């Protein structure tokens, strides 16, 4: 080991079985030789500890090595000590990349890493963010920072996720990622399973007819407002009490309650913006304690549906206006908003939001979204926002609501 009286920067890496007292013992050894800390990073994977410490030291480096090696040998730990002539890298990561899968194969992850390398990006750190209902890995990277870099990274990693059964989300790193404060969800096939208008149409015996029009509208093949009026006509004459029956039968998307509960804890303002119907959605919104509801209103006369909607139609443009109104109401700039949806009528809303997430979406929406999520678990949105499963379950545990449903 080289020695010198000059101040040197030294990287010390300790690895071995994790047990209490390793960090304390290492710091005790370092304090005995009078070093200054520059950086410390620790990771534990299945009870195996890797602890890195970057220090500056005066004098004989061999004294440092002897002190650390003796202490760590008593703990059964391996030690590597390297001089670092380049000092400490100060630049922050430019992007966060979240990879989700069930499972994530080594082949798929290699393809992600290879694409980042191809684009000149460097992986600064990797951490696990979830083990349920998906495996989630968060990569903090430094990428070439140009006007086109975000789009290039998303396009390249999007091609990887199209080849492998993984979802890959890309977002700018730094404070902006943690500054989101408003989130809105589409309702049909996003917050809940299925389409409300089809549930209502089933009561009139016209479900197949309405479903075909809905599908075409969600693909962007029909004008949403026109298709809405056409579908609502099929409900003419239904007793209004059907609304309550449908409202009570709604099934939330897996992970929806966890998502809303966690976002509320984090101080998000949560809402729904839907091309569906306020009378059906409002009871659910009240149950979930949402802050904002914008949807269409069915006309009811003498206890029966007239086959018409009243008021302004919440269509593609209306959804974007609703998001903007919600953000303004909460005093939050648009860059701090998130929108989640699945259909072509969500295009303007996701484009306007600071982060637009396409959830099991039609191709027209996937093309414009910031990121896509193709696994059927809404709580994966949390992982994209940098929230870990451990953090979610620790908070749930305090409230006595931790529950893992077996996944086939």
TrEMBL record:
Top-level class of the enzyme under EC nomenclature: hydrolase
Active site (record annotation): 186 (nucleophile), 188 (proton donor)
Classification lineage: Bacteria, Bacillati, Actinomycetota, Actinomycetes, Mycobacteriales
UniProtKB keywords: Amino-acid biosynthesis, Hydrolase, Magnesium, Metal-binding, Serine biosynthesis
GO biological process: L-serine biosynthetic process
Cofactor entry: Mg(2+)
Catalysed reactions, semicolon-separated: O-phospho-L-serine + H2O = L-serine + phosphate; O-phospho-D-serine + H2O = D-serine + phosphate
InterPro entries recorded: ACT-like_dom_sf, ACT_dom, HAD-like_SerB, HAD-like_sf, HAD_sf, PSP, PSP_ACT
This protein's name: phosphoserine phosphatase
Domain ACT: 11-88
Catalytic activity, EC: 3.1.3.3
CDD domains: ACT_PSP_1
Keyword Magnesium (UniProt): yes
Gene3D superfamilies xref list: 3.30.70.260, HAD superfamily/HAD-like
GO terms assigned for molecular function: L-phosphoserine phosphatase activity; magnesium ion binding
Amino-acid biosynthesis is among the record's keywords: yes
Family per similarity comment: Belongs to the HAD-like hydrolase superfamily. SerB family.
